[in-house]
């Protein structure tokens, strides 16, 4: 049997094996950050008991959690302040622990006075398997069983203060910082509890009676008005005008630019306004999205919905995304319905509009007020309407669209079959002469020996197919799509001063250049973000491609996917930077033989904004 030609991916793998692994001269200083909101234990949350047939569970949270998501002028963060060091003396740790225990006891005593009502965390339990509910009944959790003691976010996101010298911290991972954003968003539920108990399973409503301004810095009606006046926002592309009445949903878009006067005339007449990509025009929301995409490893989008009092903009439907509703202003009555059957659980496409008769009774009906968060998984039917006398502005943050095992298998199985056909004679052998007399619709109920033999053979081939599955290559193709989907990173002021964006030569006057910078073997660098690039081997035998999101458009797929081609022998240096992140590495420590090669690959990455230096490069006057 003639050996199949070696692929570029195999050449890359062989190159990796031949490369000598060099130990880093620096130890990885990256440490897991302290959990910000580790206050709702999984054990307590699983103490479930059936309370009623309404299937709604209530946890009252009256603490005033911090809403310190920075406003536009405060958006540039000092990374050291966002993810503080975990180097504290034992005495300080003990003092802090004692203070937390005292605070916890005080909160617990306050809980006894809480009146159960709409100001709460509402949870719907639909996951029978996880909770051992064989009867299929929905379960509920009372506030007493959960005993939630909400606490304020300790590591608040603080604006950077002017510094005489800039030194980016070695060890502050962009993922760790992103997790703080996510923890802030879902406070008081701990991140681990959220993913084990709610994610892809059931809705949850978090009410913040003590802080109705919690999400006020993300967006506002005033900032939306400014968007329409300052930007070329187009009907149908960037904004939709909708209405829903008498069971009928309509889109009422005009054409061309959506001027503020035209949009507000629709709004005055009872129409809802949906902004399709507000993060493009609003920095605070974009910062939130770019951080969250590091948490989910998936595109994070956002729609903003502005609805006048006593109206509804959309018919009941379900979506193909995980939805986080952040209520900014006003309030909205939400009704959430369970998937109607197993085929609608975790769907990969959104549904058409439903009639009221098709969806049954809601499992969750709640008035979501400013500062609240409502989460529901894909496949859960939902509708929302405003109450008389109060408008509503909310942002739906969405993620995990087409990010399932099925999506990976769609890329993996055809590639595995192609490899098996090329490399394994058994897949190319002819089928039995009478095979069509045993399989097909008319033979589906047959139990003949011939049919049994055919099915047995197919099962054997399917089992063998995995041996030829290029798992890593298929994963790289999915990662490429994520890179293209992503928003470009939002860099802090200090990060910009340590990147090509600001730490570079300038034209000052009269055609004169000033401030040239040079990378040297002693320069210490790291990737701009954990997931900013992907090293991929494709068709070309002697080169690899570095796909990256640094030059992505602020509009979804507004630009072609950007990449850099590098020689195969440069791959170990890029791998080294990926695996050593978030630690800074001296260029001289990169595992290449020639210093000139080390500087060359680093310069290519630097010029695309894909690496930061530990301190700003010295400039020549």
TrEMBL record:
Keyword Acetylation assigned: no
Swiss-Prot/TrEMBL cofactor(s): Fe(2+)
Record's keyword terms, sorted: Chromatin regulator, Dioxygenase, Iron, Metal-binding, Nucleus, Oxidoreductase, Repressor, Transcription, Transcription regulation
GO BP: any one term: response to ethanol
Catalytic activity: N(6),N(6)-dimethyl-L-lysyl(36)-[histone H3] + 2 2-oxoglutarate + 2 O2 = L-lysyl(36)-[histone H3] + 2 formaldehyde + 2 succinate + 2 CO2
Molecular-function annotations in GO: histone H3K36me/H3K36me2 demethylase activity; histone H3K4 demethylase activity; iron ion binding
Predominant location: nucleus
Biased composition (Acidic residues): 120-134
Domain annotation JmjC: ranges: 271-416
InterPro entries on file: JmjC_dom (IPR003347), NO66-like (IPR039994), WHD_RIOX1 (IPR049043)
Family: Belongs to the ROX family. NO66 subfamily.
Protein name per UniProt: Bifunctional lysine-specific demethylase and histidyl-hydroxylase
Organism: Frankliniella fusca
């Amino acid at each position: 049997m003639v050996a199949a030609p070696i692929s570029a991916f195999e050449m890359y793998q062989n190159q990796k094996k031949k490369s000598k692994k060099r130990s880093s001269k620096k130890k990885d200083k990256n440490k897991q950050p302290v959990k910000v909101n580790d206050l709702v234990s999984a054990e307590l949350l699983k103490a479930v008991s059936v309370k009623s047939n309404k299937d709604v569970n209530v946890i009252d949270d009256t603490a005033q959690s911090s809403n310190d998501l920075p406003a536009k002028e405060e958006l540039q963060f000092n990374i050291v302040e966002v993810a503080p060091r975990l180097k504290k003396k034992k005495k300080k740790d003990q003092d802090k622990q004692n203070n937390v225990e005292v605070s916890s006891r005080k909160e617990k005593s306050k809980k006894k006075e809480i009146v159960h009502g709409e100001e709460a965390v509402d949870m719907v339990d639909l996951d029978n398997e996880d909770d051992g509910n064989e009867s299929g009944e929905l379960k509920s959790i009372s506030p007493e069983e959960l005993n939630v003691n909400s606490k304020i976010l300790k590591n608040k996101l603080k604006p950077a203060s002017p510094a005489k010298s800039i030194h980016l911290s070695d060890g502050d991972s962009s993922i760790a910082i992103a997790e703080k954003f996510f923890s802030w968003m879902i406070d008081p539920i701990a991140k681990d509890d959220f993913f084990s108990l709610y994610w892809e399973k059931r809705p949850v409503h978090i009410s913040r009676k003590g802080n109705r301004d919690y999400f006020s810095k993300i967006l506002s009606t005033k900032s939306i008005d400014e968007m329409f006046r300052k930007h070329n926002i187009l009907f149908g592309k960037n904004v939709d005008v909708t209405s829903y009445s008498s069971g009928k949903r309509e889109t009422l878009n005009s054409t061309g630019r959506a001027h503020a006067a035209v949009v507000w005339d629709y709004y005055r007449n009872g129409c809802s306004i949906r902004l399709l990509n507000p993060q493009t025009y609003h920095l605070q929301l974009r910062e939130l999205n770019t951080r969250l995409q590091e948490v989910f490893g998936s595109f994070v989008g956002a729609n903003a919905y502005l609805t006048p009092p006593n109206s509804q903009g959309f018919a009941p439907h379900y979506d193909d995304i995980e939805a986080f509703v952040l209520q900014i202003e006003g309030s909205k009555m939400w009704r959430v319905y369970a998937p109607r059957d197993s085929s609608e659980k975790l769907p990969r496409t959104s549904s058409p509009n439903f009639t009221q008769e098709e969806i049954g009774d809601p499992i969750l009906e709640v008035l979501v007020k400013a500062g609240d968060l409502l989460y529901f998984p894909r496949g859960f039917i939902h509708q929302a309407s405003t109450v008389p006398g109060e408008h509503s502005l909310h942002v739906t943050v969405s993620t995990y669209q087409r990010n399932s095992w099925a999506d990976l298998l769609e890329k993996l199985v055809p590639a595995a079959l192609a490899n098996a056909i090329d490399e394994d004679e058994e897949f190319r052998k002819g089928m039995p002469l009478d095979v069509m007399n045993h399989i097909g619709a008319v033979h589906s109920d047959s139990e003949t020996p011939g049919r049994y033999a055919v099915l047995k053979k197919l099962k054997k081939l399917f089992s063998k197919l995995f041996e030829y599955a290029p798992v890593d290559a298929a994963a790289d193709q999915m990662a490429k799509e994520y890179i293209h989907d992503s928003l470009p990173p939002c860099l802090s002021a200090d990060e910009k001063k340590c990147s090509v964006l600001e730490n570079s030569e300038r034209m000052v006057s009269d055609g004169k250049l000033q401030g040239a910078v040079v990378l040297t073997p002693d320069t210490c660098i790291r990737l701009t973000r954990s997931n900013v690039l992907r090293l991929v081997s494709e068709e070309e035998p002697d080169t690899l491609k570095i796909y990256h999101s640094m030059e992505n458009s602020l509009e979804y797929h507004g630009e072609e996917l950007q990449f850099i081609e590098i020689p195969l022998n440069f791959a170990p240096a890029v791998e080294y930077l990926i695996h050593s992140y978030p630690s800074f590495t001296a260029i001289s420590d990169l595992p290449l033989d020639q210093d000139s090669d080390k500087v060359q690959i680093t310069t290519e990455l630097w010029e695309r904004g894909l690496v930061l230096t530990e301190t700003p490069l010295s400039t020549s006057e």
